[in-house]
UniProtKB/TrEMBL annotation:
Family the UniProt entry places it in: Belongs to the peptidase S9A family.
InterPro entries: AB_hydrolase_fold, Pept_S9_AS, Pept_S9A_N, Peptidase_S9_cat, Peptidase_S9A, Serine_Peptidase_S9A
Species: Maricaulis virginensis
Signal peptide: 1-20
Protein name: Oligopeptidase B
Taxonomic lineage from the root: Bacteria, Pseudomonadati, Pseudomonadota, Alphaproteobacteria, Maricaulales
Keyword Hydrolase tagged: yes
Record domain Peptidase S9A N-terminal: where: 65-464
PANTHER family: PROLYL ENDOPEPTIDASE-LIKE, PROTEASE FAMILY S9A OLIGOPEPTIDASE
Alphabetically ordered keywords of this record: Hydrolase, Protease, Serine protease, Signal
GO MF term set: serine-type endopeptidase activity
Amino acid sequence: MTSRKLAGRIGAGLTALALAACSQETDMTADTTAAAPQTSALIERAGGIEAPRADQRPVEIEQLGFTRVDEYQWIKDDNWQQVMREPEVLDSDIRELLDAENAYLDAVMEPTADLQERIFQEIRGRIKEDDSSVPERDGGYQYFTRYREGGQYPIYARRPIDPETGEPAGEEEILVDGDAEAADFEYLDFSSMEHSPDHQYVAFGVDIRGSEYYEIRIREIATGAIVATLTDESSGDFVWANDSETLYWVWRDENSRSKRVYRQSRTGGASELIYEEPDDGFFVSVGISDGDNYIVINAGGHTSNELRLIDANDPTAEPQLIAPREENVEYYLTEARDRFYFLTNADGAVDFKIVAAPIGNPGRENWEDVVAHRPGTLINAVIGFADWQVRMERQNALPRIVVHNYGSGEEYDIAFDEEAYSLGISQGYEFETDTLRFSYESPSTPEETYDFDMATRERVLLKRQEVPSGHDPEDYVVRRIMAPGHDGVEIPVTILHHRDTPVDGSAPLLLYGYGSYGITIPAAFRVTPLPLVDRGMVYAIAHIRGGMANGYQWYLDGKLEQKINTFRDFVSAGEALASEGYTSRGNIVAYGGSAGGLLVGAAINLQPDLFAGAIAAVPFVDVINTMSDAELPLTPPEWPEWGNPIENAQDYETMYAYSPYDQIQEMDYPHVLATGGLTDPRVTYWEPTKFVARLRDRRTDDGLTLLKMNMGAGHGGASGRFDSLRETALNWAFALMVVGLADEEVEAIAAE
């Protein structure tokens, strides 16, 4: 599922909002007066710095009988597709505005430069710089990823092993040195990194602009030479056939849509078109089945898909369709010895079920239920081994791992104890094995990686995430509360705070959320929030509707005409955290990125007085304009998520009612920091730029409205692992500043 990265009856309240929106008089809350901004010397100083003012060049847009005026539409470069590939061609007026915004942000945040450096060093000090992954065995080698001390990019490497013991039996071979590859570029991102089945070659995708167009390179491992470059128009998605001579790769069109699958020799030469997707609402991807017997082509939208299989042992084979696409039906494949198993929501299985079919005749007419649908228990992942099937389920916002033996039919859970935690499962390269690798972590417990013997149920700890500067889980408290929603639902909220932080309403709080595409934010260990938590801020994650924390229905109840539930849930979470003493109204910083930036923008329109500040990272905030532009990369594929305002008046009304850009009012707002990336194809640079321009123009207070535009990166920001931490340090300095925690530390640092 592509995303800005996974319905029900319209309520009377939302209908009223939509009607009001179209008359340009939306009042999303009875109280539109924000709490007084936090006062501090840093904020007062910033008020004396003149902010840029974007030119207003109004454009009247008529659509489905509605009219809206966009005074900042000019910020979208007419030549935006070329800008994604060649940033230097950006219109000079737009570049001048973005440069002015960056200069203004630098001036406002300049007094926090040393604080940012301290936060950066604290985060970096918690990262093991020469870390490495737990090796994965494949044939006669162990494959792994590591970092060198001070290195920004991963090194992909392997060691030969003793076939009897599985222990290392030779020196490390570097397959791809990320730091060396990045030496000549401001930005670099790797996509897939796959060695050939015969272990002689490695293929990898490289993006040097942040535009998500990847060049696929093939390196001969013995010599280190690049023997072929297949394309520079790939989505970065590719897979080897079993002959080690053939690759299947995905082509991305001029609108950044993954539309075609090609077959090509590893030596280069002519490519053969294998599949082309005609529907702009569907993207394609390629993979390989669990037993390595089938190349899998997935053509999928947000709510439906179809699979085609190619014999991975026959490079000349043609793709065979399993089951044709049906509206709102998804199915995903795992392989056993003589059967295929499909994870699917067919036949009304909202939280998904597992069905089986013969490998020789896998069409839907032969599907038989093997794990029945259980409402409220979401099956969100299945992997297969020769004798075992492992599935990940989620119930009551917590994950669990279920192991099933094909032969005996026996199955069991792997148990865990903490109040909130996150799990991951990995199959590795081997199919004929009893070993499952899984990971466990919580907001206070660093990640632990285990090998689990599915036959004996013995678990062996392979690695515990090391925190070089030190970390004691007992210093932190993890809690899970259920926040009452506006319509009676209970919203899970995960909380992390230092054990010395009082729970009496005095602490400021950073509230994170996402709430779209069915993506569930795990209760995982992250070193990045700890500098805030150590300074007395509470960190909370709101598991709101639009994600799947409480099952697939939780997702359905936060999309399309019910999208307003996502934003109200976030507000309800903040209100519950205040009422239970974790913080207080007006002392919360909202934080979210991409579709989570939409959440942040909608929330501050809905309830501005709840927040002291808001951080909207690469935010999807210009909803109506974006979803009305069918040429943008993600627009047609995302109509099932948001609606189609080009053809459907009700969709237009619904979107307009919550679109952050369109709903900016003349009222007081919290302090706001928005970020963007010039070459971002997912949330284009003009969305945060327009949002900041209009917000600065209309707000009735003296609060900060800041924009940080990364002129050399895309959706993910800076590409180096440490460079990206500087962006986090900027965000955290802003958060500390707007809740009044930065002044004293800035003064203390200056006095040192």
